[in-house]
Design a protein that fits this description.
The chain is mostly helical. The protein contains 14 helices and no strands. The N and C termini lie far apart (66 Å).
């Protein structure tokens, strides 16, 4: 998909490959200095350049990636694979905790079937955390590299830079976005089985609504890749969940996972999203001048979704910060208590 190959179009100075939007925008860019409410009305209109075939291909590829994740999840669920990944003793500890939880809450009182179901649910959650960690590391690396390469262009004018940010796409950006969409659908399947907070369903619906549009229209890949780096907080969160299931809540692994989660949320979500939003709406007047309803609609949808995601991320960050303060106080009190008990008789409980 190459926007630069337009027959009969010439850049200034006779250079071939001028994008049609560049001609329209170059004439009207100075007139679009103020915010125009028209694209907000266009949000209610149907897409103008997305074909049914293109949308169908996008959805089928997304479902194919989701099925691939489900297959990997099913493989990890096997006892032999989980024993290799987390260790046989750790797996036995997790299964024992699930059985004890089942009996303590009364869900296992009906017999062995309920206890076994609770054990399987714990293994599903472990498999999800392992898949999430691996997929998020890959997405963070690909999103960071793709956003950097698309954002650092040698264009001479601000208008040309905006055109690159709106219309540039690559095989890497396309399949990274497809990977993200497929992973999101895979998580929705799991949420339907395991149960999840309603906010997570809304979060995932917003991701799919925006990214499927970006993929079908083949526009605004730069913005989508920049926004996608927020997935870099998932491995640390999954690390904390894994430590909790393996009874390692007070281990160094859990401590560093919590610290990295705190700073990851702070940098990639709390700080990064407002910067992204500023850049997005800084480009909005130029995008409005392209006479391209899809591009304007994607930018406005992305901006609205980012406001929601940033609000949600701040709420989660507040909970993470509360947890860190609580754990820090517990560690300090534990250390003071240990010193007080050991000082008089130098006992072995230290």
């Amino acid at each position: 998909f190459d926007h630069t190959k337009e027959e009969g179009k010439q850049r200034p100075g006779g250079i071939p490959g001028r994008h049609p939007a560049e001609e329209r925008a170059s004439k009207r860019f100075t007139k679009a200095a103020c915010f125009n409410m028209t694209p907000w009305v266009q949000l209610l209109q149907l897409p103008s350049s997305i074909t049914l075939y293109g949308l169908l291909v996008t959805i089928l590829r997304m479902l194919g990636v989701a099925l691939l994740f489900c297959g990997i999840h099913a493989v990890i669920m096997q006892t032999s694979v989980l024993s290799v990944l987390v260790g046989k003793s750790s797996l036995d500890t997790m299964d024992r905790k699930d059985r004890e939880h089942s009996l303590a809450t009364g869900t296992g009182s009906a017999g062995k079937k309920d206890t076994e179901g609770n054990k399987q649910k714990g293994r599903h959650e472990m498999a999800q955390d392992l898949v999430s960690s691996a997929a998020s590391v890959v997405m963070l690396a690909l999103y960071s590299w793709t956003a950097w390469t698309m954002g650092t262009t040698d264009s001479a004018t601000d208008l040309e830079k905006v055109i690159h940010r709106v219309y540039d796409s690559s095989t890497t950006s396309y399949w990274t976005l497809q990977l993200h969409c497929g992973y999101t659908v895979y998580e929705i399947f799991l949420y339907l089985y395991l149960g999840k907070d309603f906010l997570m369903y809304v979060h995932h619906a917003c991701v799919l609504l925006n990214y499927v549009y970006v993929l079908a229209a083949l526009k605004c890949h730069f913005y989508a890749c920049w926004l996608g780096v927020v997935e870099g907080t998932n491995p640390c969160l999954s690390g904390l969940y894994i430590c909790r299931r393996l009874d390692l809540k007070h281990s160094l692994w859990a401590m560093w996972s919590g610290i990295l989660l705190f700073f990851g949320f702070l940098v990639l979500r709390v700080v990064n999203l407002p910067v992204f939003l500023y850049s997005l709406f800084r480009d909005l007047p130029a995008v409005q001048s392209f006479d391209d309803p899809d591009a304007a609609r994607i930018v406005l949808m992305g901006g609205s979704t980012t406001v929601f995601l940033w609000t949600l991320s701040c709420f989660w960050f507040w909970k993470i910060a509360k947890g860190m303060v609580k754990n820090a106080r517990a560690l300090i009190q534990k250390g003071d208590g240990a010193q007080a008990s050991v000082a008089p008789g130098r006992e072995k409980d230290e």
